Amino acid sequence: MPEPHDPDERWLGAVLHAAFFLLLGGALARFLTRHPGEPRAPWIIALSCALAVLHLLGPALADGTAARPRPARPRPFPRPWWLAPAWLALVVAVWMVLVVLAPSYSWCAVPLFYTGLRTLPTGAALVLVAVLTAFVVAAQLRLAGHVDPNLLLAPPAVAALATAVFLHTRRQAARQRALIDDLLHTRRDLAASERRAGTLAERQRLSMEIHDTLAQGLSSQRMLLQAAERVWEREPDKARGHVRSAASVAEHNLAEARRFVHDLAPADLARGGGLDAALRALAAREGGDHLGVRVHVDAGARTPPLPDRVQSALLRVAQGALANVREHAGATTAVLTLTLLEDQVVLDVSDDGHGFDPAAPATAPAGTRGHGLPAMRARLGGLGGTLTVESAPGEGTVLSAAVPLEASR
User: Fold this and answer.
1) Contact present, 381 and 303 (Cβ < 8 Å)
2) Per-residue pLDDT at 74
3) 315 lies in which domain range?
4) Residue 386, Cβ neighbours under 10 Å: how many?
5) GO MF terms on file (predicted)?
6) Which among 18, 146, 220, 321 is placed 20 to 30 Å from 173, CA to CA?
C-alpha cells in the first residue's frame, strides 16, 4: 500500500487497515471457535500473524504507486519500482493459502481490492480483482456445500461495483488535479504578463520623460556651445551669453535628473528605517505652525518587511494627501496611521479640515498639483490596491489606501 501524501489518502489508508484487521481477526476467531483442536490450527495462526505483519509493513515497503504518480519528498536511495507489486503479490499469496486452509478468510479480499487498485496500474489491478473475486466465490461455495446462485453472482457484482466507484472517483480526482494545475499555470502566466506590461509601461514613461527633458536639454546645450565656439573670438560677450544659457539648461537638466531618481527611490526611504521612519520624516517636514502632523504605526504582533514598491507607493500617497490637506483642507491637524495586517497594509490620512463632497466634481484648476486622487488610485491600482475617501462638508476627511501584501510581492 503506498504511503499517503494528503489527508484523504491517510484517511482511506487508515480505513483499509482497520477493515483488513477486523476481517482477519474475525476469520481467525471463527476458525478457532468452530474447529477447536484442529491439527492445522498452528499453521492458520502463523499465516494469520504473517499476513498481519506484511500488511503493517506495506506503507514502509511500498512507498509510491504505479497506478498514479504523485509528488514525494526526494530520497537519497529511491526504492525500486517493483517493490510495491512484489509486496502485494506476497500478501495475496499468503491470503490465498489461508483461504484454501480456511474459506472464512475469503472476506479479507474486500480491502485487498482497494489495495490493488491503489497500488497497481489499472489493467493489472483489474486482473487482480478478478482473481480475488474468483477465490471468494469458490470459498463461499465451499462453505455452503452446494451451488447457491446468490453466492455465485453476488461477489462479482459487489467487486464490479466497488471497482467502478473507485476508478470513477480516481479519474474525477485526476481531472480536478489537472484543472488546478492549469489554473496555477494560468495564474503564473498572467502574473508574468502583468509584470512585463508594467515594466514596458514604466520604460515607456521614462523614455518619454527623458526625451522631453534630458535629451532636449542636452541638444540645446550642444547647440549653444557650438554657437559660442563660432563667435568666441569675434563677439566674446555674445559667446559668454551662450555659455551662461548652456549652464542654465544644464542646471535644469540636473534638477530633472534628481527628480527621476527621487521618483524611482524616494529619499526618505533611501535613508533606511522602513516606511514608518519615512512617514515620520515626512510628517516632520510637512508639519509647521499652521498644520500639525502626527504618525501612528499599528503593527500588532508582527512587523513584516514590506516590499519596496509598496513602501514607495504608500509614501507617495502620503505626500500627495498631505499636499492636498495643506493646500485645500484648511486643517490644523493631520494624522498618518499605518496598519499592518496579515494580508494587507493600510495607510490612513485623516484631517480636521472643512471637508468636501467626494461625489462632487473637482473644482481645483487642472495642473495646480502634481498629485491628485486619480494619480493615487493609478499608483495603488498597479499593486492591486484600493483608495477610499470618506468626507463631508465641515467634518474633515479620511483617505484610506490599502495594498494586499501577497499580490504585491
Assistant:
1) no
2) 45
3) 272-408
4) 15
5) 4 iron, 4 sulfur cluster binding; metal ion binding; phosphorelay sensor kinase activity; protein dimerization activity
6) 18
Task: Report how far residue 172's alpha carbon sits from residue 166's, in angstroms, rounded to the nearest whole number.
Answer: 10
The three cell numbers of residue 396 are 474633515
Cβ-based neighbours of 280, under 8 Å, separated by 6 or more:
295
d(CA 122, CA 33): 39
Q: Domain for residue 165, yes or no? A: no
333-340 and 292-298 as β-strands: parallel, antiparallel, unpaired?
parallel
Residue with the larger pLDDT of the pair 390 and 366: 390
CA contacts within 13 A on the Cβ side of 337: 14
Query: Angle 168-184-341 (CA atoms, 0-180°, nearest 5)?
Result: 120
End-of-domain residue from the set 85, 117, 147: 147
Query: How is residue 209 annotated by DSSP?
Result: H
69, 75, 81, 83 alpha-carbon torsion, rounded to 10°: -120
Pairwise CA distance, residues 37 & 155, whole Å: 31
Domain for residue 204, yes or no? no
Show the cell assigned to 311.
Answer: 513602501
